[in-house]
Amino acid sequence: MLAAVYRIEHKSRKWARRIFFFIISTAMTNAWQLYKRDRKEIPGTCTDTMDLLSFTCQVSQSFLLQLLEAILVRLLQRQPSDVSREVAKDQTSHWPVITQTRRRCRLCCKLATCLCKKCSVYLCLSSNRNCFTEFHN
């Protein structure tokens, strides 16, 4: 009954999405019920209890902030590979190194396992794509 008051609307023809959002909505309603019960047990705090909509918004904001912090930490840890034009085009000592890790190609943004030893840039080097040559010419 309470889950229908502020239902998370997500129209979809796929049943898995409907069930997913129903479970999220039910979990949010149950968490709000526990929040209300805990607030009643603490004396003097029952007057400023959040309603279901504000509780849902608060929980959503906290999840989004945690996700944003994780994304920012990941972006700050990433080493920028700014290769000067002169170094990339000098035509000397650019050797491809095949690695176990797969990173995004600098030119086509597909996953590549080839790393330029001098530039430290991941580039595609295969029979159908040769971003390594295009990048250095």
From TrEMBL:
**According to the lineage, what is the superkingdom?**
Eukaryota
The name this protein carries in UniProt is: PiggyBac transposable element-derived protein domain-containing protein
Native species = Trichinella murrelli
According to the entry, what is the taxonomic lineage of the organism?
A: Eukaryota, Metazoa, Ecdysozoa, Nematoda, Enoplea
